[in-house]
Design a protein that fits this description.
Number of strands of chain A: 20
Strand content of chain A: 5-15%
Largest sheet of chain A: 7 strands, mixed
Organism (chains A, B): Mesorhizobium newzealandense
InterPro entries (chains A, B): MttB-like_sf, MTTB_MeTrfase
EC number (chains A, B): 2.1.1.-
Oligomer: homodimer
Protein name (chains A, B): Methyltransferase
Shape of chain A: globular
Low-confidence stretches of chain A: 1-24
Family (chains A, B): Belongs to the trimethylamine methyltransferase family.
Chain lengths: ~525, ~525
């Protein structure tokens, strides 16, 4: 493995991808700020989109949503919602929802650790995130196992390493850290290893406040400066159908108050927690997302919220969730229509239900990815490494999926169609039966013309066999091992360690903060 | 393996997919006639497309194309082209090309063995073909080996089995049959095992005439009846850059005379046999395709031709062809724009350069597939099973790729967005914290709501491990083995064997027909 890594490292240097001296003529793709070049693909007529929106408003008006947090019910009631004290059901008038859609920002400036990593979240922009929320981690060398802090840190290093992964996220749950202190470790890893836009868990106000304080310390911001911009995000999952639990409602409130980003995502599995039709699942998703973002706007008009969609289907024989299915793609395309109807930035979900990084995993992941791309999703979460419908994150799959994301990123770049690119003279230069390898047109461009693969191997069968007949996943092991071995965290991130460790030491002495449920 | 197949077969029967009595309530998707539901995605402006077309006309007018077949040069000359007798270069005026684009049919009715398998080839329709032209065949049980007639026959059975594969094709080269008799075996296998639209090699007039005669015998047609409709197709590859060899030129002439379909496909690998830019490779492709289809229209105005595109790139370090790359996807999207400019049905090419059916193979194949889908290709060749850039066809990859094709086919079906699908009542029926499994809305639809996977396994990690931790490729082995074991050729196809065998026996006695080169 060491030999492989060394050889691959030499090859990478030859390719000039490591940014060393003398490589100015090599390819330096910029994947940091992607604009989606594809026309959004609709599955519903405009009338049908309006009908889904209207039905979602009826769901909120006539049926309501159960809100478990008293403070949230009070906020809703004060804003004009009808709250049933016996059932905790909250019914929202469409005027409240319309006002919320008006005050929610259509564009969010996400401030990262350095300005070069800042992101604009709005319709038309496209960001990718690695798989998140998995209890387990897996790789070909160590097998599948419960996630640890060491794994989480390695995943943060890999997310930092690949420019096409635009934000950090809670890839795996570090189960070796007590849950009263886990959020310190998770936040510390993000802030000291990376300068990308970080995630903070919404597991109760004490943990959220700890997270905000760590961000203020790391970024050197006052409370007011912190509130003035979006410095982190959280994901709020409603409990479909029609329920908002205590930590999630509290998270919406806490993040809105602090001007931080809530990604409000119903997880609507058609046939299980949502109606079996794509239109029905999206109607429930839309109603729940609207309820959540309305709460955020009640707390603070203009609070940054991302419309969330993660609707797929289940296997009706076993109840098992499925991803990358035709229904998942369709639900994502429909969600894009609903998001555009609101005008808000929005998130989709990628992923696969496969148990190993095989052809099924790749196909499902790419179908989900294309659903997101063709739906115009602003944030595509779980786009790399996610297996088992989110029960594990795979190191090698993260690498092979990054290759797919880089391919999409390459498609964002314009294709020159000027006279020089059309190249009549180049065609004239090469006679029938000849080749273009040494044509002037080729020589002027060959270093930078084509995408250079991360893990794909295009050698012929003989050479591939001589190199050990490795699958893409086996080769991916060399890629992530090398990325970790060569990893140097950004100096600005490293510099935050001292102040963060001081804070963590104090809070640990104080007993930390248990998650609220 | 036998046990697995039996278990899987039982599961398939339970799922009701085998069409047995009592399964009327199960899902019966119809993949036979697909209309592409996606908006075509452009990479060039309309002006740039016009400039590429104009430059291609300049290439043909000013530079010309080398035509190795004297008869073809004569035909071109008689139609007004300038032929240089010293260099065999043919220069075509744009008037000739414009006339050809006018007379070429915009819609081709492809007559298969039964009307239920007929296809309409025109912009907006979408057909998929398995990988074609490979010298080798591979599967997990027997490994990679030179193709044999037995393999070819098995592949024809599998192509016939999966409705989402719309035409037959020369998947692999049966190298165990002498090349003077090989075309008899290939044609016989297609006509006796399948009722789908068949392929005939263009390897010289004697072989082509044999193929046409076998088709007339199998279909019970007179020569005039045969000529009146398109009963088969061939693929014409130009020798890029700017050369048309003897068998290919002869093929265009023979197929046009007989009213059969020529798919005229330059194989333009940017940086090698074509300019290194996507626009340049497409300009050369366009010029060569126009030259070929002009020859067909000179021979017989109205002869059915399919505009062919198979432009990708090479690795500039090794010269190795690559597929499913960003450049391949872009070239396909641009080719779609050029094809729509001509108004003709057109073919694209899928595939992967991977050496084994792994994550790379799946990702590359699906990227190439999406290129074809979003470019609006009428025929997508090499869409299933193609490995090593066409040097082998894999049985298990054919199955995993068919799952991807079926997913795309499912996306062609409209998504209901009516009030009943939106399902306000269903949402009202299920209380917060409940589930939709037993809702009336679900019960009325659960048998047919969702795509049922062919090879994907959505079981959880524990069950998957207990079932032997099989990869998708390993499970695919059971799928293709079962499909072959259960295969029953269409009665109409079986019925052709007698008359074909009589013909083959006579022609074999006469010495067969060697390929022309």
């Amino acid at each position: 493995m060491v030999d492989d890594a060394a050889r691959d490292s030499r090859r990478e240097r030859r390719r000039g991808r490591t940014g060393e001296a003398g490589s100015e003529t090599s390819r330096r793709p910029d994947y940091r700020s992607l604009k989606n070049p594809f026309l959004p693909q609709p599955i519903f007529s405009d009338d049908q989109v309006a009908a889904i929106h209207d039905t979602a408003l009826r769901v909120l008006e006539e049926l309501g949503i159960k809100v478990l947090l008293p403070q949230a019910r009070e906020l809703f009631a004060r804003a004009g919602a009808l709250v049933d004290p016996d059932t905790d059901m909250v019914r929202l008038g469409r005027d409240m929802v319309t006002a919320a859609l008006t005050s929610a920002p259509k564009s969010i400036q996400a401030r990262a650790g350095t300005r070069a990593r800042d992101l604009t979240l709005e319709l038309g922009s496209m960001t990718f995130l690695a798989g998140c929320g998995a209890p387990n981690v897996t790789d070909l060398e160590r097998g599948r196992r419960p996630g640890t802090l060491a794994d989480f840190e390695d995943l943060m290093r890999l997310v930092q390493h690949f420019d096409v992964l635009h934000m950090l996220g809670p890839c795996i749950e570090p189960q070796d850290v007590d849950n009263r202190y886990r959020h310190y470790a998770v936040n510390r890893a993000q802030l000291t290893l990376s300068d990308k836009f970080p995630f903070v868990f919404a597991r109760g106000t004490p943990q959220v406040e700890d997270g905000f304080e760590m961000l203020r310390l790391a970024r050197g911001l006052s409370e007011d400066e912190f509130r003035a911009n979006a410095h982190c995000y959280t994901v709020i999952n409603t409990n479909s159908p029609r329920q908002l639990d205590i930590p999630m409602a509290q998270g919406i409130i806490d993040f809105a108050r602090a001007g931080q980003v809530s990604v409000i995502t119903p997880f609507c599995l058609a046939g299980a927690m949502a109606p079996i039709t794509v239109a029905g699942a999206l109607t429930l998703q839309h109603a729940e997302a609207l309820a959540g973002l309305t709460l955020a706007q009640i707390v603070r008009p203009g609070a940054p919220v991302v419309y969330g969609s993660f609707s797929s289907n289940v296997d009706m024989k076993s109840g098992a969730p499925a991803f990358g299915t035709p229904e998942h793609v369709k639900a994502t395309l429909g969600a894009g229509q609903l998001a555009r109807f609101t005008g808000l930035p929005w998130r989709s979900g990628g992923g696969s239900a496969a148990n190993i990084s095989d052809a099924q995993a790749a196909h499902e992941t790419q179908f989900a990815l294309w659903g997101s791309v063709l739906a115009g999703a602003t944030m595509c979460i779980h786009a790399a490494g996610w297996l088992e419908g989110g029960l594990s994150v795979s190191f090698e799959k993260l690498v092979t999926d990054v290759e797919a994301l880089q391919t999409v990123a390459e498609l964002c770049a314009p294709t020159p169609g000027d006279s020089d690119s059309i190249g009549f003279e180049a065609i004239a230069e090469v006679q029938p039966g000849g080749h273009f390898f040494s044509a002037g047109h080729t020589m002027a461009r060959y270093r930078t013309a084509f995408y250079e693969p991360l893990v794909a191997d295009w050698s012929n069968f003989g050479n591939w066999t001589q190199s050990g007949s490795k699958t893409a996943s086996e080769r991916a092991t060399g890629v992530w091992r090398r990325a970790l071995a060569d990893f140097v965290p950004p100096a600005s991130a490293v510099a935050t360690a001292g102040v963060l460790d001081e804070f963590i030491a104090r809070r640990t002495q104080e007993g930390g903060a248990a998650p609220v449920s």
